[in-house]
């Protein structure tokens, strides 16, 4: 279920989880109280146990931990619109590898991605509407596999990363839950 961020939630019978007249953020804060009540400090440090960073789209249908069998503390998850390797993803990967010890990179795009329907025209229209040109590219794409290859290449050729020998890219199918690996060549 998706919940518009700007609208109050309808009253819920499950009053333990949702206040009668709260925003979606109120609902999250309530859920956190329950999470914290059952939480025990696992005593980990910040270095991911599996030494892996997963770069993925922010899509709400992609539950990385469940889909990849990951547990708390296993990996870094770095997400943005499209799972595109932008300068800021490289920033995070650089910190992930150089300061926090990860070695492997997994890139995940997915079927039905919102970026498949956009073009750079989005950016031009936005600039015309608000009177300010964004200093970022939309990074829209038409071909999922080709964009995964582009992302693999950006990671592999980054001068900032220590480890670029284990970089693999996948497309997650939101209807089957299956990953399909993309041949980098
Ligand atoms: Zn997406």
Task: Walk me through the structure.
There is one protein chain. This protein has helices at residues 24-38, 64-68, 87-98, 121-130, 144-156, and strands spanning 52-57, 75-80, 104-110, 167-172, 179-182. It is 30% helix and 16% strand. β4 (167-172) and β5 form a beta hairpin. It has two domains: 1-39, no CATH class; 52-182, Carbonic anhydrase (Beta-carbonic Anhydrase, Chain A, 3-Layer(aba) Sandwich), CATH 3.40.1050. It is of the alpha/beta class and 185 residues long. Strands 2-1-3-4-5 form a five-stranded mixed β-sheet, covered by helices on one side.
In oligomeric terms, what are we looking at?
single chain
Based on secondary structure, the structural category is: alpha/beta
Strand content: 15-25%
| CATH homologous superfamily placement of the largest domain | Carbonic anhydrase
CATH topology of the largest domain: Beta-carbonic Anhydrase, Chain A
Q: Per CATH, which architecture of the largest domain? A: 3-Layer(aba) Sandwich
Radius of gyration: 19 Å
Distance between the termini: 38 Å
> How would you write the strand order of the largest sheet?
2-1-3-4-5
How many runs of DSSP E, i.e. beta strands? 5
The helical percent reads 25-40%
Kindly give the count of domains. 2
